[in-house]
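STRUCTURE:
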């Protein structure tokens, strides 16, 4: 029997994609699951689906800000009370960088996402600015590889790949992020949207519940 598999589509701009990424990356619930992280462009998804950004809908933006902080507390995800400066910033250059990393150094993609997410949502660094982004890449990859990643991120090859991945997730039903494609040990595939469905993701995958006292236990209990 094959282990459960999970694909998480993400964009650095989304606090809820960050919540999903952090829990999947660090929670023991997903320890026995094969994980794939796929950078896509949320702006492209929203435009293609005619989706209105939540912050432009009366009351919804304020509620979602309250909700992201509640989930962060319940799941012990580090996140500042305020949103990053300039939120929501244009993350197209960042997503192209992550796409380049996934093509050049796929084994370092998660570590790169760790650095960028932490810089954005914990320290409020302007990760969409090249100088900041280059510094983060240098910390993870070293100076030479960081320069190569930046160079490749502006290539037609990487631009096409990011567009293709974004089109792919739209074709799979996505209208926002986080978006999950989950395949359980029986080979059954299902898709999910939103951080508040991460419990349903774990259930579909047949993953074990956390024991009492574990980090994030309150978060899982709140989804019952």
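SEQUENCE:
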């Amino acid at each position: 029997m094959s282990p459960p598999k999970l694909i998480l589509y993400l964009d650095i701009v989304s606090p809820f994609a960050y919540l999903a990424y952090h829990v999947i990356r660090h929670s023991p619930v997903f320890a026995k699951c094969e994980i794939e992280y796929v950078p896509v462009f949320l702006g492209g998804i929203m435009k293609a689906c005619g989706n209105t950004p939540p912050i432009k809908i009366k009351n919804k933006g304020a509620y979602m800000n309250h909700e992201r902080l509640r989930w962060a507390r319940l799941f012990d995800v580090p996140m500042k009370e305020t949103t990053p400066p300039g939120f929501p910033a244009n993350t197209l250059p960042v997503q192209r960088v992550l796409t380049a990393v996934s093509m050049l150094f796929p084994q370092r993609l998660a570590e790169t996402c760790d650095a960028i997410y932490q810089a954005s949502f914990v320290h409020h660094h302007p990760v969409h600015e090249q100088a900041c982004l280059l510094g983060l890449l240098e910390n993870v990859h070293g100076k030479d590889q960081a320069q190569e990643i930046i160079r490749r991120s502006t290539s037609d090859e990487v631009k096409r790949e990011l567009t293709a991945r974004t089109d792919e997730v739209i074709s799979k039903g996505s209208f926002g992020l986080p978006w999950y494609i989950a395949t359980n040990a029986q080979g059954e595939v299902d898709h999910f949207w939103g951080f508040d469905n991460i419990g349903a993701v774990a259930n579909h995958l047949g993953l074990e519940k956390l024991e009492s006292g574990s980090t994030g236990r309150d978060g899982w209990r709140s989804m019952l």
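REMARK: The chain has a mean pLDDT of 94.
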